[in-house]
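INTERNAL AUDIT FORM
Audit reference: QA-55
Scope: verify that the stored structure record matches its stored sequence.
Auditor: D.O.
Record contents follow.
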Amino acid sequence: MKLLYIGSFMFRKWLLWRKLKIKYRIDYKKVVLVLTGENKKLDQACLSHLDDFVKRKYAESVIIFYPAECYKDGDIRVESGYKVKLCPLSRAVIDRLYSFYCFMKFFDNIVFTYVDEPSDNQLGRYLRETEVNEEDAACLALYHLRYVPEHDARI
């Protein structure tokens, strides 16, 4: 019975991803950035290096999901050479999507800015206890760029 519950639990999360994928026409020509609001400096660093990530993935546009509880209209400003769509989601939906992503990496062009979730995520610890800053973390750990590109303050 417990296995059936786990299966239906994951099925609902898979269904959530499918709904988002269809609604926003997510494919490999798009990258998806999911801001969490846990570390707003990290969120801003991800936004400022977004074009570098899009270029690395050979994509054409960006979808940014963000928690409506953490960011209000106008809080997120992105100047990009690519088409960007901002989509508010509830924190619960973002958490469910991330929970499913932790269970199964379902899309290569998606980045979440969680720093302390799940419990074995060490990014928050590195940011707190070492000299790694949010810009380094965004470029090297989340976007997997080979270096930290120079950028202008576009946020």
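Auditor finding: record pair retrieved intact. The radius of gyration is 16 Å.
Action required: none
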